[in-house]
Amino acid sequence: MVEEPNFEYKYDLALWKSFSARLSFAILTIAAAVFLVAILGYLYIQQEQVKEETAQKAKTQLHDAVMSMRLKAAETLPDTVPTEIFIDILQKVQPYSSSFTMMTDEDGHLLFISDDVALEKIPHEERLRILDIVCSGETGMQEVFKGANLSLLIYEPVVGSHIQVAVVCSRIDILSGYQSLILYGVVAFVLGLLILFSACSYAIYKLVNPLQQFTKAAMSIADGNLDTPLPEIHSKDELLLLRNSFEHMQTSLKQHIADLKITTAGNERLQSELKIAHDIQMGMIPTVFPKRDDLDLFASMTPAKEVGGDLYDFTIDNDELFFIIGDVAGKGVPASLYMAVTRTLFRNLAGNYQSAANIVREMNHAIASANESFVFVTVFVGVLDLKTHHLTYCNAAHNAPVLITEQGTCSLLDAETNLPIGVEDHYLYEEQRISFPEGSALLLYTDGLTEATYYSKDGTRRLFGEDRLLHDVEKNSKASAIEVIDFLKQHVNVFADGTEQSDDLTMMFLRHGTSADSSTTPMRRLIMKNEMTEVSRMRGFFFSVCREYGIDDETAKSLNLAIEEWVANVINYAYPKGLRGHVEVRAGVSNQVLTVVIKDHGIPFDPTQHADVDIDAELDDRQIGGLGIFLVRNIMDTMDYERTADGYNMLTLTKRIENTKTQ
């Protein structure tokens, strides 16, 4: 059982997997990146501004301290000003709680630092660099302690003395006013992302929601609900075009279904009429054949389509057998109409015109005089005198029949071609005459036999051909009429190997007198490929044989079980895997005994040499196989095996059947 797809689940993912979603999220990502850059840029500018404000406060205090020191130095000699006075002034410089001051002389000796602990934290190399900067005698500001310990060094000399002073503002001082800005920036960024996400999600929903409705509508339409309402689209964009396309599809489907109903009804009516025509056509050709000691006659017609253009017929008048086989040019109903006309003309003319040529001439006149469509028919008409053993015949462009002599040799009958009937009204048809003693036989056929086609896998086209036909007929030269026809039909089926045929197949076989082996009861024959699909054909064939001989259905089912079991074994095991082979089944009843012969050309196997399986033993103790042989032995009366000289396995099964009719 095929599981229905979960369209609801697929739609739930549509919000994230649709093209609009991917596009929207791409835009969201770009917008978020731009927004983040803007936030970071703003924060950087604010950081520099805060840094400048921090430095300005420290610069001011340091400069005021320097000016005080200069005043003190001006009041006395510079070299006489005690350092303690400068230190007292410098100690008052405290722009921030975490800042510290320092004082050096021009030789780089540290005279004072307000925070010894802070000095200890400064790496030695960085400490020397700071002292060099402070002792440079310049005024300025530099960043020191790069990285996590970023600080600002603001320095200025006390003019008129050898003293240099500096103040160091730590990272904490610099960023104390910057922390809130960072917090505000993060909050703004998160809020911006949320707003962008909400906007994109809403836009995606507005795009995808109609698609969900379109999906549900499409599923409903696919289920046959063509009046399913479509979602209303108010925007003039691709969704509106999609809705209009769906609406057009609904209208087109409704019209298509309405047209299809009309066409289907017409086709059903045509098929019914063709079926009736087929039944009428098949009812026109004889299916009951004469039972005479001096004649064995059987014929068969298989149309390639519902109706065909082939025909056969016969009639016996005063020990004279009049017979015809023909093929109308073209196919279908027109050919079937001409077939009916030709067969009716033959029936009307056979009793009144004793000559085969006269019959053909009159048929030609009747058809050619009103043949506006220029349809022609090839026919072979013969008259066999069963007492004088003479055969007269006239061929109107038909295939030459196969002549089988009393000795069993086969050849094509010498037959003048002549024109088909319906071509030229006053054409003079030639008649021919041969001796046809008892034991002689004639196979008449249409080109559907010799032109039966097989297409190989590589596209190569092969025809059944006359050589194959002559070989088959000579091989069955002593068989009965029904056996010959049956064998040829089966061989054509095997030869075609499933290739559809384009021409009708019609055959007629007649033998004057009894066959050389008249004691043999005719048996029906079926030839199959070694494929399990052929078992159903075998089943139909066997049940038709049982009905033919009056075997009741229950007995037929039991017998078919045994035969089907063995045929299946042959198909599965007689031929190596991948090797094409055939299985032949013959069946018939004689003297209340049903005989079934199963023949194959596979691996030799004699079932009579195998002991019966012990069905009472435990399953684990039983040998594999043998049940099929056991089944056949218990259903049939006898089972005989023979490996023929030409390499065939032949299994003969018999069963005595009461209350049957032997033919």
Task: Based on the model shown, name its key terms.
alpha+beta; six-stranded antiparallel β-sheet; five-stranded antiparallel β-sheet; disordered N terminus
Strand content: 15-25%
Structural class: alpha+beta
Question: What is the number of E strands?
Answer: 23
Shape: elongated
Describe this structure in words.
By secondary structure, the protein is α+β, with helices and mostly antiparallel strands. Helices cover 45% and strands 21% of the residues. It has helices spanning 7-12, 14-17, 19-75, 83-91, 116-121, 124-134, 171-175, 179-222, 238-284, 332-350, 356-368, 447-450, 465-475, 481-496, 535-548, 553-573, 627-635, and strands at residues 100-105, 110-113, 140-144, 151-157, 163-169, 291-292, 295-302, 310-317, 320-328, 377-385, 390-396, 402-404, 410-412, 432-435, 441-445, 453-455, 461-463, 505-512, 524-529, 582-590, 593-600, 638-643, 649-656. The strands form five sheets. It has a six-stranded antiparallel beta sheet with strand order 6-7-18-15-12-13. The protein has a five-stranded antiparallel beta sheet with strand order 2-1-5-4-3, sandwiched between helices. The protein has a five-stranded antiparallel beta sheet with strand order 8-9-10-11-14. Strand 4 and strand 5 (163-169) form a beta hairpin. Helix 3 (19-75) packs antiparallel against helix 8, helix 8 runs parallel beside helix 9 and helix 15 packs antiparallel against helix 16 (553-573). The longest helix has 57 residues, at 19-75. It is elongated. The relative contact order is 0.05. Mean pLDDT is 81; it is low at 1-16, 515-520 and 619-625.
